[in-house]
Design a protein that fits this description.
This protein is an all-alpha fold. The protein has one domain. The chain has six helices and no strands. The longest helix has 30 residues. The protein is elongated and about 75 Å long. The two termini are 38 Å apart.
């Protein structure tokens, strides 16, 4: 089979799979738990940033001296945020889970590697060094075409 046909078939297969697992599509239920996990992970990171900001802001400055009441308020706020973070232990491994799922389901560019490893040997009946060229080509096309799809969806 021609290498260009192989690249095109693998690109269409991976983008097709990415499309039908997108939000609102028929196979979104496969992707939804990971989208929810990513949202919760981002909320966790925002709370962590808020905690760091509060810890930095709790020290008095020359322009503004904290009263005892405002210092207590800051300490209670910091304790509250810390408590939220401690109760979010289940999201400790969220980055690892999302990192592992990226080439399988979450990232159209990353999916090129997995789809090439699956489809290239099936389409060409060989497993050779040319597969790396196909993989990078599919990754480029996936990125380009999915960016166009996202741009058109925003309009």
């Amino acid at each position: 089979m021609n290498i260009f046909n192989t690249i095109l078939i693998i690109t269409l297969a991976s983008l097709g799979f990415r499309s039908i697992t997108a939000k609102g599509m028929i196979l979104y239920f496969i992707r939804k738990p990971f989208d929810d996990l990513a949202t919760k992970r981002n909320q966790f990171k925002e709370k962590l940033k808020e905690l760091k900001k509060l810890e930095n802001d709790s020290e008095p400055t020359k322009e503004y001296q904290y009263t005892e009441e405002s210092r207590n308020f800051h300490q209670k706020k910091i304790s509250s945020v810390r408590q939220d973070l401690l109760s979010s232990k289940e999201y400790k491994h969220a980055d690892l889970i999302l990192y592992i799922m990226k080439p399988f389901l979450l990232c159209s560019t990353c999916m090129a590697s997995v789809h090439t490893l699956i489809w290239y040997p099936i389409l060409t009946n060989k497993f050779d060094i040319l597969m790396i060229v196909v993989m990078f080509s599919v990754a480029f096309l996936n990125t380009l075409l999915w960016s166009i799809v996202e741009f058109l969806q925003k309009k």
